[in-house]
Amino acid sequence: MDKTPISNFAVLNDKQPVAIAKMAEVRLYTDDELINLKLLRPSTESPSIKAFRDLRTKLLARANGKNFICMVVPIASGGGSHVAANLAAAIALDKTKTSLLIDCNLHTPSVDRLLPGGSEIGLTDYLDDQRISCEDIVYGSGVKRMRAVPVGNNCDGGTEKLSSERMARLLQELKGRYLDRYIIVDAPPAMDYEADVSLLSDICDFIVLVVPYGKVNETQLNAEIQKIGIDRLAGIVFNEC
Fold first, then answer.
1. 233: helix, strand or coil
2. Residue 21: is its pLDDT beyond 50?
3. Backbone angles phi, psi at 222, to 5 degrees
4. Which of 33, 34, 100, 162 minimizes the number of CB atoms within 10 Å of its CB?
5. DSSP letter, residue 3
6. DSSP class of residue 145?
7. Distance CA 202, CA 115 (A)
8. What is the model's pLDDT at position 30?
9. pLDDT one-digit tens code per residue, 104-136
10. Where are the alpha helices (H) located in 118-193, listed in sequence order?
11. How wide is the angle at C-alpha 103 spanned by C-alphas 162 and 204, nearest 5°?
12. Angle at 45 between CA 44 and CA 48, to 5 degrees
């Protein structure tokens, strides 16, 4: 778990923590494990790495040098979690930045599989229990400088959980705690869980839409863009995974 106290991080010029490179890590994944998990491998210069680095660059430019909360949402089921995880991994490739992937897809969770040590509690446990702190649900992933929050143990009443004031406070606390931390929210498919996506979009800075290959037509794409609002849309990713 991410148990490092805030006081252990000195701040340089009010912008970047000095000790990013010294952050405690769990066992890091091997290249073979990254391949099995369909995660970026920093040891290669593949088209996927270039694509996610380009997306990272565009998001950073949009944020004007500040950290952000970006929701990644597929229009239909398929590929959203893949894009969210790899965007978080791409951000973590930058040695001056860390990323935090939060699993908000309470219907088809996926983040737990990225945790080498597994997890005991997660987002829904935090939202249910005031005694749990945000540090208790942040885990090291097998990717350097990338942290993750799994869904947790009780996804019943998911929409009510996501709409709670505690959920909104959590995202702002996680964003404000470390100025080098960039938060990626893995959301459920927009066409299947419109209420969840609408609630999450209200507490995120901007949104990346994922269009699964062969599952969405132009009319459906335009409808989702209108719902989100063009001013909130940071990009569209066409994905074959």
1. strand
2. no
3. -65, -35
4. 33
5. -
6. T
7. 28
8. 94
9. 999 999 999 999 988 999 999 999 999 999 999
10. 123-128, 158-162, 165-177
11. 55
12. 105
